Amino acid sequence: MATANVGQSGNERLEDHLREKNIQTIKKGEVIQLRINRNENYGADSTGIRLNIQNLKVPEKKWSTHELVGLIDSKSPLIHSRGARWAFLDPTNGPKFLTTKKLDIGGHASLKGWALGDNPSFFANTGETTVAAWTTLPPKTLFTHPGPNEDCAIAWICPEDGDYTITGHVMDAHAGAGDGVTFFLELIASEEFGNDLAKLGEANGNLVAPKPVTLPVAYAVTEGVIANAPIQLRGDPEQEGNPVERRWLEVFGGATLTNPEQSGRSELSDWITSHPLFIRVLANRLWQWHFGKGLVATPNDLGARGAPPTHPELLEFLASQVVANNFKLKPLHRIIMQSKAYQRSSNGFGVENPKDPANLLLSHFSSRRLSAEEIRDSLLVVSRQLDKAAGLNHPFLPETSWNYSQHAPFNAVYQTDKRSVYMMVQRQRRHPFLALFDGPDPNASTPVREQTIVPTQALYFLNDEFFHASANLTASNFLANHSNSSPVTELYRFIFQREPSMAEIAITNQFLKTYDGTELAKWQAFCRILLASNEFIYVD
Fold first, then answer.
1. Most buried among 103, 124, 407, 524, by the most CB within 10 A?
2. Helix, strand, coil percent values for the chain (each to nearest 5)
3. How high is the mean pLDDT of the chain?
4. pLDDT of 7 over the 90 cut
5. 63 — phi, psi (to 5°)?
6. How far apart are the C-alpha atoms of 445 and 26, rounded to whole Å?
């Protein structure tokens, strides 16, 4: 959630680094952990800490490490506090409790704590006066000190579900030579981890420590330096003129930023979504998804330079429905799919109408090929391979092994039986299947999917392992479950959702009679024919 270096004499407030993350939804058993890591120069690393956690809806339910000053002389490094539990830990190689109790540290009766050896340790000045030890230690304050090869952490195990605010600070408590420490404030969203950690503490460290949670890692974009950009005189970046205040385009009103100290991304998103064209662009794209062509043929350019809408009143109606349904898209999908225009068939309209060759008047449905994702999902469904569970993380190697470069880029392809929306997308290399069937280029905006017909697509149906496996499974499942009365009819119903014609039944029976191989091989071959047909990969 937050991290920062705490240099000599430094004092970092947690909320300054958490920003909007200082409010977290936390479930019972999940863990907030404040970890203090040593830097390269070990020594003079005594660090004062304070972590405050408060229930947002029930403010009287609050916890603070300040309470631990009076509780540190307990029987265990797992301390109970009004339903919550605090744990003093060494997190370096999986959580270990600091099980050595320290009293009269340095000959000072008010200094008490927990450690492993000398350090890592947590200790407190429990007295009412400052203690002059190896450094000056203020009264009623909790401190920590990493070890030479170990870090330290304090963990709070959540007692009940809720929204919590998080505040506090990490401050240097030993001014002098050195490079300070680095803190990491983490939410470990695993009830199992918190429960196992509590069990380990109750056993005073005599159980197997819970396995550390693998935190997901991803490349991300963060805010850069916030500044107004100067005019480049004659377009030369080396000749800078006066800076220009960041604002919306003057032609659209020139509204300025609400908070000039931020990037302006929030205002930009507000300005875009409040513009009247936004809902029309949204409605047009939904229509295009269902019909293959938008009411405006240039979905990336609605305006004077783009194509005019073929049905302006319809576009206005769809846009009004977006607003009426509070920008929920399912009602608009329902309106479109229940319309007569969508429910018309393309069958029987093979010859173009000379009065409307592009079918702009929607006298029938314009046949469209399934998108690459739809083809793949359809094969998974018909072969009963589809895993309907939500997609999880891909099996990436640990980030410590990443040594990719421009000349040795990451180019793995992870196979999955989940929906295509969960497939991994790489900017430098499209998935081979998506590239073959005109999937979008992840490096560019794709307003309209191209529909190419190339020889490699036919070769895919002849040779691809995934396609053949899908056809084989379809045949095996069919033979295991069909009735013996009319197997051809049942197969057509299953794959095409319709009855076969008498001619199709005759052709199928002739094929099954003349094709060499076992009964299973015959049906597998015929399933390949049906799954590679135009009827399967086109919407009529």
1. 124
2. 35, 20, 45
3. 89
4. no
5. -135, 150
6. 37
pLDDT tens digit string along 36-92?
A: 998 877 766 888 999 999 999 999 999 999 999 999 988 889 999 899 999 999 988
DSSP string, 224-288: ----PEEEEGGG-TTSEEEEE--BS-GGGT-PBPS-TTS-SHHHHHHHHHHSHHHHHHHHHHHHH
Average pLDDT over residues 422-434: 88
CA distance 342 to 347: 13
List the domain boundaries for the chain: 2-202, 243-269, 275-343, 367-394+409-540
Distance CA 519, CA 508 (A): 13
- Closest to 26 in 3D by CA, of 49, 68, 1, 55: 55
Long-range contacts of 223-226 (CB under 8 A, 24+ apart): 223/262, 223/263, 224/263, 226/260, 226/261, 226/262, 226/263
* CA dist., res. 106 & res. 115, Å (int): 14
- Reply yes or no on whether the pLDDT at 340 is more than 90: yes
| Cβ-based neighbours of 500, under 8 Å, separated by 6 or more | 488, 489, 492, 508
Q: What letter represents residue 285's amino acid? A: R
Closest to 494 (Cα-Cα) out of 478, 509, 508: 478
Split at pLDDT 50, 70, 90, the class of 505 is: very high
Tokens of 289: 């998804």
* Tokens linked to 62: 């609050």
Task: Determine which helix (DSSP H) or strand (DSSP E) holds 24, and give its type and residue range.
Answer: strand 23-26
Q: Are 105 and 112 in contact (CB under 8 A)?
A: yes
114: confidence class by pLDDT, cuts 50, 70, 90: very high
pLDDT tens profile 380-401: 999 999 999 988 888 888 777 7
Spatial distance between the Cα atoms of 71 and 80, rounded to a whole number of angstroms: 9
Cα gap 518→25, rounded to integer Å: 59
Bridge partners, residue 88, by sequence: 154
- C-beta separation of 188 from 213 below 8 A: yes
> What token pair was written down for 303?
């305006």
Within 8 A by CB and 6+ apart from 507, the residues are none
- Is residue 59 reached through a cis peptide bond, with omega within 30 degrees of 0 on the bond before it? no
pTM, to two decimals: 0.61
Q: Write out the two tokens for 375.
A: 């083809």
CA angle 274, 25, 81 (to 5 degrees): 155
